[in-house]
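Collaborator request, handled under Task 6.
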Amino acid sequence: MKIGFYGAGRVGCTLGRYFREHGLSVTGFYSRDPGHAEEAAQLTGTSRYETLESLLSENDVLFLTVSDKAIPAVVHQLTDMGEDLLKGKLLCHTSGAISSAVFSGTGAFGYSIHPLLAISNKENSYHDLPQAYFTVEGDAAYLQYWLDLLSGIGLSVKAISADEKVRYHAAAVMASNLVCGLYDMASGELVKCGFTKTEAEQALKGLFLENAKGIVKNGVTAQLTGPLERGDAETVTGHLAALDEDTRNIYRLLSGKVLDVAERKNPDRDYSAVKDLLAE
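Structure tokens returned to the collaborator:
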């Protein structure tokens, strides 16, 4: 199938280049900014489409690699072009939060295809795609086609339900964006100890990176260490006393989740003292 892209940003360029270098028939890009489309075409060795009509008529698959808030408007724009142009086409967006239901009523087969990866730039992020999991949901007619195609070009892929799309996206936020908030909170505590903000972030870097590598290599349960894993109620008591109320509440909540992991790791260890502290 011939694949065209509406949207010429980081995601579009990354997917377009990876697809093309792995033998898929990527034809080119359309963007409301012709300069962006031209840049994407040059990066991927494809063409720039002058009109949306030509993009749609010349391709079997259309990827909408635009912002989440722009997807409904683009779908409406496509629908206004008429069912004859859309019938039998495969329309795909790359949003983590929006399901394929946004394509209902278009007459096309609709899919959500999302790479679970922070794509940082147009030029080089395609190298990182094999490290990412792709999730796919949408019309049953071509669902297996997408699973086979993506796995066939070296990508990890999982089919999910449209009903679980928002939960899936929340999970991704927990593992990425919310970690930024936790890191900032930790560095803030070091600032209270006399570090500058820059010093605090640098001081935590090695600890953070090695822990992240350990989780990826060994899994969460095997990687877990520290006072909660040991059931060290005395140390946890000191932590709770040192923190202000807002930070203490977050510490209590996250520590409860960590204890769940600790109990899986050490099913014979008594964590009742720590649980009592967290429940106070």
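The cover message to the collaborator said: "The chain has a mean pLDDT of 96. The longest strand covers residues 109-116. Please let us know whether this matches your experimental observations."
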